């Protein structure tokens, strides 16, 4: 049973944040692009695709076929609307990726060269859900395939104003695995946006990847694009890059 999600009404706002918050364009998009590498001709799954920002980007970056999966009906509706308007040639499926079924998923399993996932793993509420996300990704991959997952950095900058210069805040009232972390942003024009993710340690992600059957996992930190550095000046990015709010988990199938 797939129920309501906090993302259901966020599609358009989330799309706006991807272009209006400079870190999303110049750090997040740039770093995901670098980590994903050459996808020309590949089949790619975008897990927790939301409104399809990266689903469409992956098609633009040369992937032969891209499928986006998400649990939120509202986010997928925005994805379908954009697909109707832009004809990126991508496909969307509604799935709860934290709950891979015992019978597998005939439309997805063993079909992908790469799984990309941007800010989805950190919405697992329990360790079981985290392992579920990674199991969905691992099952989708062909032998030799890889996962590139951007998620909340366990070592993000503490202090509610740490990211104020970048247009958002992170608030965490309790510590420990699975603790809620609320990201709040105000987009130009005063439009508020707030979502609550979960804090997981590097170890929790690595353990879940291993339990899901990934042979190896490693971490990469985001970098800023040349355009971002020249447009805003390198000093603007110093605090962000000293404690980025996101990190990238790379995991490979044996
Ligand atoms: C912060 S948004 C990121 C969306 C997209 N990856 C992007 O970067 O634009 C997180 C997304 O993860 C999705 N998500 C959360 N839990 C999920 C689950 N159990 N299965 C599939 N998608 C999930 C949410 O519905 C939401 O669309």
Q: Short description, anyone?
A:
With 254 residues, the protein is α/β, with parallel strands linked by helices.
SSE layout and pairing:
Blueprint: H1 11-20, H2 22-36, E1 43-47, H3 53-60, E2 65-70, H4 73-86, E3 91-94, E4 112-118, H5 127-140, E5 141-152, E6 168-171, E7 179-187, E8 191-199, H6 202-211, E9 216-220, H7 226-232, H8 234-242, E10 246-252
Parallel strand pairs: 1-2, 1-4, 2-3, 4-5
Antiparallel strand pairs: 5-10, 6-7, 7-8, 9-10
Helix pairs in contact: 2-7, 5-6, 7-8
Tell me what you see in this structure.
Helices cover 34% and strands 27% of the residues. The chain is of the alpha/beta class and 254 residues long. Helix 2 packs antiparallel against helix 7 and helix 5 crosses helix 6 (202-211). The chain has a single domain (11-153, 200-252), classed as Vaccinia Virus protein VP39 (Rossmann fold, 3-Layer(aba) Sandwich). The protein has 8 helices and 10 strands. The structure holds S-adenosylmethionine.
